[in-house]
Amino acid sequence: MEKTILIFGALILAILVLFKLSNYAIYKGDLSIELAIGVMAIVFFFIGLFINKRLNNRKSQESIEIDEQKIEELQISSREYEVLCEIAKGASNKEIADTLFVSESTIKTHVSKLFLKLDAKRRTQAIKIAKDLNIIPEL
């Protein structure tokens, strides 16, 4: 946590220095406003790339392993597992049916079987249980 605070503090300090230098250069007449804005845009672009890279690295390190054994213990079929993953993405029954090329009533059957196997009453509860059991990835 302290490292993150230091990084963002240094980032804010660097941005402040950049603003002050561009302000000074504009008043002195050595630098046009367009060039100062362009330089700041490029700096912010690279800062954004850096932060994005760090966040993606952190997410890949935090990825969990799917517990295949738990899926087998719960007797979740491969099709039910596909439905569960689509539910976790927030898809409706109609959207899941279109994605998996089956009827909507088939999806409703799979969902009700999933609720029984996971001992859930709602979709959100089923997703939470599945994540707690490490049988679906964090999205």
TrEMBL record:
PROSITE patterns for this protein: HTH_LUXR_2
Keywords: DNA-binding, Membrane, Transcription, Transcription regulation, Transmembrane, Transmembrane helix
Gene Ontology biological-process annotations: regulation of DNA-templated transcription
Residue ranges of the TM segments: 5-27, 33-51
Gene Ontology molecular function: any one: DNA binding
Domain HTH luxR-type residue range list: 69-134
Top-level taxonomic group: Bacteria
InterPro entries assigned to the protein according to its UniProt record, in alphabetical order: Sig_transdc_resp-reg_C-effctor, Tscrpt_reg_LuxR_C, WH-like_DNA-bd_sf
SUPFAM superfamilies with a match to the protein in the record: C-terminal effector domain of the bipartite response regulators
Gene3D superfamilies on file: Winged helix-like DNA-binding domain superfamily/Winged helix DNA-binding domain (1.10.10.10)
Protein name per Swiss-Prot or TrEMBL: Regulatory LuxR family protein
Taxonomic path: Bacteria, Pseudomonadati, Bacteroidota, Flavobacteriia, Flavobacteriales
